[in-house]
Amino acid sequence: MDKIWDWFCKICVIILLIIVINSIFGDLMFRIKYSFPKATVVKENTIDTSKDPLQTDLKNAKYIKYYGERGLYALSPQAEYSISALVVAKNNNFWFRDIMRNKFDDVALLDLGLAWGDLAADKKELYKHIKFNSKKTLGQARILYYRWDGSSPWGSGYITSHIAHTHMIPANTNVMGGLLQIKKNDIIKLDGYLVDIYTDKSELVAKTSMSRTDTNASSRGSGACEDMYVTQVQIGNKIYK
Question: Based on CB atoms within 10 Å of each CB, which residue in 67, 71, 99, 167 is the most buried?
């Protein structure tokens, strides 16, 4: 009986090692795939983070076919969307993707915590009062955690309506490569569409938020996050599309 148990433990260890090695290899190949983006345009204009995101709602827009690494999806555009903001958090969510990945992870490849308006005007003042962290929970949720102190010059209503946790769905390899260049504290501009996500069998994967003021799981986006199909990203004066 002891020998059987020993062999069982050895087999389990071997299987675990194979899974981990395969996942690490997959993660490395994923990073290499998007490591060499090319700036399509170089502009000298300054990105204005003082204004709210621009959103034009759509009706009956055509579905966008989207290939994940594990499946085929249909993106349903709900609005044209453009946002200029300060990056306050970033979550690549790559390591051990094969072990932890669900259908949503197969489509939305990156999370960004974004702030605009008065929040983006002074980074030192912002971080003095508000702490941000974007991560994936053990329950598979991808959340922007933030907390502010009582001495904040902004009220809770202003804060919650001027930050967003946006899940990035890149339109192509170059856009994804550009997104990976983004660092915390960068000033960026994103253009594209807010989309609902379905499988190729019309099964709902996720709905996007359509408002900057929803705050909880009862919202349209089941957590107030924007799911954005990104067609163009600007970092400083470099544009990737």
Answer: 167
Structure tokens at 118: 């008065």
DSSP 106: H
Residue among 172, 221, 156 at smallest CA distance from 66: 172
Hey, what are 226's tokens? 């924007």
Report the candidate in 139, 131, 140 with the shortest Cα–Cα distance to residue 111.
140
User: Average pLDDT by consecutive 10-residue portion of the chain (241 residues)?
Assistant: 73 75 68 79 84 95 92 96 97 66 88 96 92 76 84 89 95 94 96 96 93 74 84 94 92
Strands (E), the chain: 41-42, 54-57, 64-67, 72-91, 110-115, 130-136, 142-148, 163-170, 187-199, 204-206, 226-235, 238-240
Of 30, 91, 83, 96, residue with least CA distance to 54 = 83
Q: What is the pTM of this model?
A: 0.86
d(CA 131, CA 8): 46
Phi, psi of 212 (to 5 degrees): -90, 0
